[in-house]
Specification:
Rossmann fold; nine-stranded mixed beta sheet; 3 domains; six-stranded parallel beta sheet; globular; alpha/beta
């Protein structure tokens, strides 16, 4: 029997995401397909802690170019801070590797162009880890839309809720600064805009948004530097003790001595510059209109989405965390105009994003899998969702709608966004 070839991969950026999703869990489930050959992080102590948790004996690098030259991985998985993805993606492709980038693919228009141009020039492949496309409810909704049960979709209501724990977490670290994350319009909403682009099978055309910082940052009643040393521990609802999470403690606490990157910085720091309360309208090229919102200090975690069509409506209210008991399944309601409604129960699967993370890893690691629903997302999808977020942020600053074509500008006739499907 022929033995399967194991793809040699390297991880760059060895924080929590790399260590769990693309480190330990990947090797536990997919080691017949891929083998980890090196780790790279600017912080060698964090990389050591990551290597310990993953449970491998591989070299650690702080210099990405050196790792590429010495180890020559076939695949690089990029899990660094969002604004650094482009440089590492481009270098990896230039060194002959395919790349999986964590979302968002990147944070600015210039960086998007740089990535797409490098992919075209090198002929390598870039995948973007849009795991929400693989969540069981997302797949079921896509099937229902494809079936035509509600006819052509005319509009979408889409509201995403981050709770006081997960939402606050974005304000503890680099995500809290536009320069590093592009704001949550890019960092977080890249998932949501990608879901819309995929569900609707169209590109965003015009974007209009309002956004404010209403709860975190300068709005706090008091502030410290970080939770561990904060004089307001007892009175702060957002106080966290990172020691309760041994992996966070190992990856971030002692390693912070090398780079100053603490995992529990104060959510009320004055200098935080991203909005926490956002609403957006999007008009698609196929005429569909969307109303979307993102709130970050809610008592619930999850989303509500509804597709309105000529023949009916599909609705989902998905709770990932809530202060009441929900059944271990999500309900999608399909309502037909002038006809009956149907309640479809979609069971939760185990693992991250109700099994979406495992399905994404299957799709990316196992060769030749059927992709009937087009869940696998490449650089174009990565680009379109980020462009939508950049346009939303720009619109919220200007106070007027922004066209995607305007922020995209010229690409010197290279056709970087030509549809490839
Ligand atoms: N798909 C999802 O659901 C999901 C979930 C969590 C995180 N993410 C994404 O994964 C990525 C990592 O998230 P995280 O929470 O682990 O971040 P993190 O900040 O904990 O870790 C990032 C690591 O990258 C290192 N780093 C930064 N710049 C570097 C460079 N130029 N070269 C080498 N190392 C560098 C940092 O030292 C740090 O150790 C982010 O892009 C994030 O958006 C995706």
């Amino acid at each position: 029997m022929a033995t399967r070839r194991i793809r040699r991969f390297a991880l760059v950026g060895t924080g929590h995401r790399a260590t769990t999703m693309w480190g330990r869990s990947l090797l536990e489930g997919w080691s017949d397909y891929v083998g980890l050959v090196a780790l790279c992080d600017l912080n060698p102590l964090r990389a050591e802690r990551s290597r310990d948790h993953i449970g491998v004996q591989v070299p650690i690098y702080t210099d990405f170019d050196q790792m590429m030259a010495e180890v020559k991985p076939e695949l690089v998985i990029v899990c660094t801070r969002d604004d650094t993805h482009d440089e590492l993606i481009v270098k990896a492709m230039e060194a002959g590797a395919d790349v999986i980038s964590e979302k968002p693919m990147t944070t600015t228009v210039a960086k998007i162009k740089r990535i797409l141009e490098a992919e075209k020039r090198t002929g390598r492949r870039l995948d973007v880890s849009f795991n929400y496309r693989f969540a069981p409810t997302s797949a079921r909704i896509k099937e229902l839309l494809n079936s035509g049960v509600i006819g052509d979709v005319t509009s979408v209501d889409f509201h995403w809720y981050l709770d006081t724990s997960h939402g606050a977490d974005y304000f503890r670290r680099w995500h809290a600064f536009k320069e590093h994350s592009g704001s949550l319009f890019v960092h977080k909403a890249t998932h949501h805009f990608d879901l819309l682009n995929w569900y609707l099978d169209s590109d965003p055309d015009q974007v209009s948004a309002f956004a404010d910082l209403k709860h975190y940052g300068k709005n706090g009643p008091f502030r410290g530097t970080r939770c561990r040393t904060c004089p307001h521990k007892a009175e702060c609802d957002h106080y966290v003790d990172m020691r309760e999470n041994p992996l966070y403690e190992a990856l971030y606490e002692e390693p912070s001595a090398l780079d100053g990157y603490v995992r529990d910085a104060c959510v009320f720091r004055e200098e935080i510059d991203i909005p926490d309360t956002m609403v957006t309208n999007v008009r698609y090229q196929n005429g569909v209109t969307v109303s979307y919102s993102l709130n970050t200090y809610m008592p619930i975690e999850g989303h509500h989405i509804a597709f309105n069509g000529h023949k009916g409506r599909i609705e989902l209210r998905q709770y990932e965390k809530q202060p009441w008991t929900e059944p271990p399944a999500d309900e999608i309601v399909v309502m037909r105009n002038f006809g009956p409604a149907e309640r479809i129960w979609v069971p939760h699967s185990s693992g991250g994003h109700y099994g979406g993370d495992d399905r994404l890893r299957n799709m990316l690691m196992k060769p030749g899998l059927n992709d009937e629903l087009r869940q696998r997302a490449g650089s174009r999808a990565g680009a379109m969702s980020v462009l939508c977020g950049i346009a939303a942020l720009e619109s919220s600053k200007r106070g007027s709608p922004v066209a995607i074509s305007e922020i995209w500008g010229e690409d010197n006739g290279i056709g970087l966004l030509d549809r490839i499907d």
